[in-house]
């Protein structure tokens, strides 16, 4: 039986809701018992209130101060305290618990992930953007506080499970698998007219809108390459990406003796979340199991860097180091949301990232002094302004 006191940051999102669903299933089957300290959400007050009524946390927080009264009304008659705004989310992240899920989307999750990293709790990190923005400092902060960082992204969970942490010199390379997204076989001329609805319809995974767009451009795999480099202390030339459309092998570790270990499972985020929740133990829950005979075959191909240039841009950013991965992240985030808002064409997402990276490099963008989180947030804000001006330039030229 796994017992945990838990906070979920970004509870109303895809990963956050999957975390609570997994916990409910573990409780129903008698394999887990959970107390919830805090739940945070953004605009979805109805979902946050429903979750808070079910789990009775001490605190429920919405990111939006204008929605505080709605949240208060929705939780009237309960003993759940309510709060709103960024500072309240950071406060929720610093409360003493055993386990914190950081699953806010985008750089908006950085401050609270940073706060959680300093508590000494186990940090289940889904918010890949915070690792990309200031990975080495975030990892160091968790260590110093006596906590443990467990990756939730399925690829990094896979590597984490087969990586020899006690003897990293045994590893020759990491191999990240990618589904290839919904446009894996779409000819470039047809990619011009891709709509947000088409881009968020992922063939294998059910995910939030931003990561679905990242998956469609393959910027997601680029972010994951940076994430893997920091998590497993691996240079970019020892991280490969292979397209595996079935999303059954979640990633692989090649050892120096030629042996390659893979982690496999159906594409369901509750499995890597279960791994992070119970680590180093394992928790039984009614998971769908692999049926290899029914699958028949697994296929692999090289990524097409011409149709999906974001992957190579991320590699260049990782190679450049310093603040450049944070620049890549912010430019990509601005471009992905502009596409979702129908202000940017799909193929221009990578074009905006490329142009912003070029401008930031010319401007000598670098981390300033002070704590790593603050320095990353400054780079993020400055890059956002640059990326928005690149997008405005494209709109004026059209
Ligand atoms: N989904 C997946 O399968 C998956 C897999 C691997 C990694 N990840 C990573 O996990 C993170 C979450 O992804 P997701 O797909 O779960 O995203 P999502 O469904 O869009 O959920 C995002 C969560 O963040 C909240 N949020 C949005 N803006 C916020 C802000 N400014 N301040 C505070 N909270 C805010 C949302 O609240 P409201 O919805 O209430 O507005 C929601 O709770 C991302 O970093 C993603 O890359 C996701």
Q: Which secondary structure elements does this structure contain, and how are they paired or packed?
A:
Elements: E1 2-9, H1 14-28, E2 32-41, H2 45-55, E3 59-62, H3 68-74, E4 81-84, H4 86-94, E5 99-102, H5 110-117, E6 122-125, H6 128-144, E7 148-151, H7 154-162, E8 171-178, H8 188-191, H9 196-199, H10 209-217, H11 219-231, E9 239-243, E10 249-255, E11 260-264, H12 270-278, H13 292-295, H14 310-320, H15 324-340, H16 346-362, H17 372-397
Parallel strand pairs: 1-2, 1-5, 2-3, 3-4, 5-6, 6-7, 8-9
Antiparallel strand pairs: 8-10, 10-11
Helix pairs in contact: 4-5, 5-6, 6-11, 6-15, 6-17, 10-15, 11-14, 14-15, 15-16, 15-17, 16-17
Residues 10-16, 41-44, 63, 89, 103-105, 108, 126-129, 153, 205, 207-211, 269 line the site of NADP nicotinamide-adenine-dinucleotide phosphate.
How would you explain this protein's 3D organization?
- With 398 residues, the protein is of the alpha/beta class.
- The protein is built from 17 helices and 11 strands.
- The chain has helices at 14-28, 45-55, 68-74, 86-94, 110-117, 128-144, 154-162, 188-191, 196-199, 209-217, 219-231, 270-278, 292-295, 310-320, 324-340, 346-362, 372-397, and strands at 2-9, 32-41, 59-62, 81-84, 99-102, 122-125, 148-151, 171-178, 239-243, 249-255, 260-264.
- A 7-stranded parallel beta sheet has the order 4-3-2-1-5-6-7, with helices on both faces. Strands 9-8-10-11 form a 4-stranded mixed beta sheet, with helices on one face.
- Helix 3 links the parallel strand 3 (59-62) and strand 4 (81-84).
- The N and C termini lie far apart (60 Å).
- The model has no long low-confidence stretch (mean pLDDT 97).
- It binds NADP nicotinamide-adenine-dinucleotide phosphate.
- The site of NADP nicotinamide-adenine-dinucleotide phosphate has 29 residues, from helix 1, helix 6 and helix 10.
